[in-house]
Amino acid sequence: MGQLVDGVWKDEWYDTDSTGGEFKRDTSKFRSWVTADGSPGPTGDGGFAAESGRYHLYVSHACPWAHRTMIFRALKDLTDHIDVSVVHPDMESEGWEFRTDFDGATGDRQFGLDYLREVYLKAKPDASGRVTVPVLWDSRTGQIVSNESADIIRMFNSAFDGLTGNDDDYYPQALHDRIEAVNDRVYDTVNNGVYKAGFATSQEAYDKAVHPLFDSLDWIEGLLAENRYLTGDRITEADWRLFTTVLRFDRVYHTHFKCNRSRIVDFPNLWGWARELFQWPGVAETVHPDHFMRHYYHSHDMINPNRIIPIGPDDDWTAPHGRG
Ligand SMILES: N[C@@H](CCC(=O)N[C@@H](CS)C(=O)NCC(=O)O)C(=O)O
């Protein structure tokens, strides 16, 4: 675990000393957008037109943020248009690596590099900050378009529709306000909330994260008692953004990050909703528990010094979801 400082790799754990034990997530540094015609998106530079074979996605199958982009790639029929490299699940002193001695770790299929940080340095030799997945790389200009999953799934939602003919819309205009409101709460207290609880190095910081996390899961359970999906009767990006955290919850966050007031299987509506999303066409193929079990329990030796990977639980994600 480390980060780049002016282009130089520094092996260091997250700094929680200066924040009273709280984990503060770094902001993503590359924020341009692929658009249908190459016009600029909401942030960053223009010039990134949607074209088949031009963009390459770097992911970890362990990472919930990268997983969102793999789900949108599948939902939007982009698998033939955007190629993928998958890092090794172990993230140690060198950061994400392209070793291939783990089933499903592909190596760097573009350049044959050893470390993900080298991709960042190719784009920006003096880059500073954390070297995170996902990364959307433009092979035409040799730049990173974006390393922000929330933006990448919105690009995938619409920019390539002319190429694929798939105009399924997970961010419909009429629901923008509702989706943003759900996303804001879910991001802060659930997606990032599990990390804030797990990486806390003081009791106060843990308490400050873990209670809002379970308050939000109770709130979501109520929403899903009334509605099939988070924002009503159609599935949207708000559901997919929550799903990748829920998928990892009972096997990882409950134990490893001490988020153990309840499990997902204790919430009947949330657990049914989660199974429905898992069973959505194309989604199960993006789910790799071997990568996420290995990644968290092995890489975070501050939390789990003996790197023992626990046995379960082995819940049945293929059971009928009953959400019809
Ligand atoms: N805001 C980013 C966060 C991505 C992120 O934090 N990814 C984690 C893996 S789950 C990572 O690569 N961490 C490496 C590090 O922090 O050094 C996004 O949503 O794309």
Give a structural overview.
The structure is a single chain. The chain is of the alpha+beta class. The protein is 37% helix and 9% strand. It contains ten helices and nine strands. Strands 4-3-8-9 form a four-stranded mixed β-sheet, with helices on both faces. The protein has a three-stranded antiparallel β-sheet with strand order 2-1-7, with no helix packed on it. Strand 8 (135-138) and strand 9 form a beta hairpin. Helix 1 (64-75) packs parallel to helix 3 (149-158), helix 5 (176-191) runs antiparallel to helix 7 (203-226) and helix 5 packs parallel to helix 8 (237-253). The longest helix has 24 residues, at 203-226. It is globular and about 50 Å long. The relative contact order is 0.14. The model has no long low-confidence stretch (mean pLDDT 97). The structure holds glutathione (GSH).
Radius of gyration: 19 Å
What's the CATH H-level superfamily name of the largest domain? Glutaredoxin
For the record, the count of structural domains works out to 2
The small molecules bound here are: glutathione
Residue share in helices?
A: 25-40%
Strand tally is 9
Number of helices: 10
- Shape annotation: globular
CATH fold-level name of the largest domain: Glutaredoxin
What about the largest sheet? 4 strands, mixed
CATH class of the largest domain: Alpha Beta
Structure, briefly:
With 324 residues, this protein is α+β, with helices and mostly antiparallel strands. It is built from ten helices and nine strands. The protein has a four-stranded mixed beta sheet, with helices on both faces. It has a three-stranded antiparallel beta sheet with strand order 2-1-7, with no helix packed on it.
